[in-house]
Amino acid sequence: MPTAREIMTPNAECVNVDESVVEAAEKMARLDVGSLPICGNDDRLKGMLTDRDIVVKVLAKGKDPKSCLAGELAQGKPFTIGADDDAREILRTMATHKVRRLPVIDGQSLVGMVALADVCRALPDSPVGDLLDALTSD
To answer: What b/e string do you get for 46-63 counting C-beta neighbours within 10 Å, with b at 16 or more?
Structure first.
């Protein structure tokens, strides 16, 4: 089975904890992505920010996206996958935590992102179908 390193999208860009939600949204638009890892000033992963987070946790609550910082939305420890973990571990982690994107780390460094689309391209239909069932079940 391929490893995360083999199927990930490399060179993932972070949004810094001190950047505003507007800056994060602009970066998402420029990169044409729906989520970004949130990294601290120490370059360590602090969380994930999604376009849905911006809508639900900022806009819908009446917060100012220019003054709300990305770091305020980094809640809990993010789910990650090791760069050398195989696809079985990716499938298990995505299914267990019901996530469609995983930051890929090598040691403490973010080296890429693996998304559901990456998994779909890299693996046979059967395990991907099982993952889709897990992600969409209640």
So the answer is: bbbbbeebbeebbeeeee
